[in-house]
């Protein structure tokens, strides 16, 4: 879904600034004076969702109106085209006309109920508290007026049969969602960032594991960024959305609904379970063995209820410590990995080296089982959630798989700490070129012909054998393995260079002393005692 700021909206192959995002965000400021960002998020995103499905419905309605022997009010004409059926009283034109009425909130709530009733996939998902006393109805009307000026679906009578316009409209709304999710994460800080993984990190994970076809699983899916990016990857490489089967789980009920909405507007089929649930204590996908697993679990969770799961079948490499869920997440992911599956996920840097409460022994067992395929240290300041340094783990079953070269007993280490650029005072972002460089190194290492020949690059990447990892005490920090960058040799002997540099330093110190004496003399001439 994975990972966008007003000053830096993405301009990569997935789209440029649409022009109205900043207007929406400025409008949000009016309401955020009366509610916190978390509350406003659901007010705004719910309305955007309502506007989109109403626009998509109207587009189909207009097209049917031009066809003979068809009834624009025939519900089946919409469901057959994967368009949500919007009841008459729930269509956007009604809200636009009544935006200034004090009953506008109740109208929206009633519409949300009606839409859920007519579209079972949305049951229990849409926000339905627009009539609450704490929500300023006048400002709500202003927001409706603003959103009403945004055309989320192109309606051109000359081109109603264009089969590609539905895709474009979903992409537009998806990008608005991404923009808002990123802005809300920034505004809310740690609490908001829990549902949003920066797009650059999501894109790197997806580019690394290349989910072309099969089952994709995210055990802590947040707002669905991993799924959205996976679908984009498939389409960008000539595949179809139906090539992937989406499985996810989310413990936060509000975020689970947000994910359902996020995927619904893009027409992405999914199985997120019938409700939100705790992945450790109520695994909704017990029998799923995924070809690709993507995840950004919450870092270093201490109250995950591990004392109730000491004998769980997932802990094949050792019971994870009660005070930290990191290795519970790792083993849950391994448990759900198909025989030739690959997983990429985010963890705190401490997971690569910690020896507390048996973590070192679990890590040793993972290495000895030859599951660790690649480790990447990330630059700092990538995440809204935390300043804790993060890394990426890539696990793979079946390293001898003929699809790639036989890499049994090997692990690739990549040190990406020096990459990225600051896009504001607190956040850093990886560029598309940097993402491509990291992914290309991994693809070349595992033997993809189109990626070229792999070579160790001092300061960046290193292929390490299992015995070398054992010699480092099974610590998986790339800095232990990636050699220092080569320093350019200018041909000057070391002794001569040091002599020259010392002489230059002495000259500079003497010049500094001369200037200090001159300054003091001038100050005394002006009557100052120095």
Class of the largest domain, according to the CATH hierarchy? Answer: Alpha Beta
Discrete helix count: 16
CATH-assigned fold name of the largest domain: Rossmann fold
Question: Strands of the largest sheet, in order across it?
Answer: 2-1-3-4-6-5-7-10
- What percent of the residues sit in helical stretches (DSSP H or I)? 40-55%
Order of helices and strands: HHHHHHHHHEHEHEHEHEEEEEHEHH
> What distance separates the N and C termini?
64 Å
Structural class: alpha/beta
Q: Name the CATH superfamily classification of the largest domain.
A: Vaccinia Virus protein VP39
Strand content: 5-15%
Q: What's the CATH architecture name of the largest domain?
A: 3-Layer(aba) Sandwich
Number of domains: 3
Q: Radius of gyration in whole Å, from Cα? A: 28 Å
Tell the overall outline: globular
What features would you describe in this structure?
- The chain starts with 20 loop residues before the first helix and ends in a 5-residue tail after the last helix.
- Residues 1-18 and 156-168 have low confidence and may be disordered.
- Helix 10 (225-236) links the parallel strand 1 (214-218) and strand 2 (244-248).
- It is 40% helix and 11% strand.
- Helix 2 (37-65) packs across helix 6 (137-148).
- It has 16 helices and 10 strands.
- The strands form 2 sheets. An 8-stranded mixed sheet has the order 2-1-3-4-6-5-7-10. It has a two-stranded antiparallel sheet with strand order 8-9.
- The protein has helices at 21-32, 37-65, 76-79, 92-97, 104-118, 137-148, 165-188, 190-193, 199-209, 225-236, 253-265, 326-335, 359-368, 432-445, 466-471, 494-525, and strands spanning 214-218, 244-248, 290-295, 337-348, 372-377, 390-396, 410-415, 421-422, 428-429, 461-465.
- The longest helix has 32 residues, at 494-525.
- The protein is α/β, with parallel strands linked by helices and 530 residues long.
- The protein folds into 3 domains: 21-189, Up-down Bundle (Ferritin); 191-480, 3-Layer(aba) Sandwich (Rossmann fold); 493-530.
